[in-house]
Amino acid sequence: MRGLEIPPEVVDALGGGARPPVTITINGHSWKSRVAIMRGRHLLGLSNANRAAAGVAVGDEVEVDLELDTEPRVVVEPADFARALDEDPSARAAYDALAPSHKRKHVHAIESAKKPETRQRRIEKAIAALRS
Fold first, then answer.
1. Same domain as 95, residue 60
2. Beta strand 36-38 with 41-45: parallel, antiparallel or unpaired?
3. Residue 79: left if φ>0, alpha if ψ -120 to 50, beta else—which one?
4. In the chain, which ranges are continuous DSSP H helix?
5. Is 73 part of any domain?
6. Helix 79-86 / helix 116-131 crossing angle, nearest 10 deg
7. How many Å apart are CA 21 and CA 127, to the nearest integer?
8. Which residue in 2, 98, 112, 115 is a FRET match for 41, CA 20 to 30 A apart?
9. In this structure, are 9 and 56 located in the same domain?
10. Per-residue pLDDT of the chain (132 residues; tens, 9 = 90+)
């Protein structure tokens, strides 16, 4: 099993729209995701890591606990990036309006820098992109 098909009536019963954020639990292992729609079918992705953590294999039948995830998605900004955002109100406003996935991309780019000068350059690049 690489993904799980979810009946439309289950998605409707969650009450979170067509692609609701959900908490998935299989065999006591939980993770957060979002229902996807592909070719008219509602699907939940099941990564290799989550499959291994849940102790299931491709083709296994599983019982899935699915709950609407109402917790806000929070992305923690590194202190130096937060300072740079706070110094530029237009960049801060643009960043705050981003979806969590886009915020994570900015934060990941900054935190994955190995050298301080690379990190600073990436912060400056992010601020410039947000400002425009």
1. no
2. antiparallel
3. alpha
4. 8-14, 48-54, 79-86, 89-97, 100-111, 116-131
5. no
6. 40
7. 29
8. 98
9. yes
10. 567 899 999 999 999 888 999 999 999 999 999 999 999 999 998 899 999 999 999 888 889 999 999 998 889 999 999 999 999 999 999 999 999 889 999 999 999 999 999 999 999 999 999 998
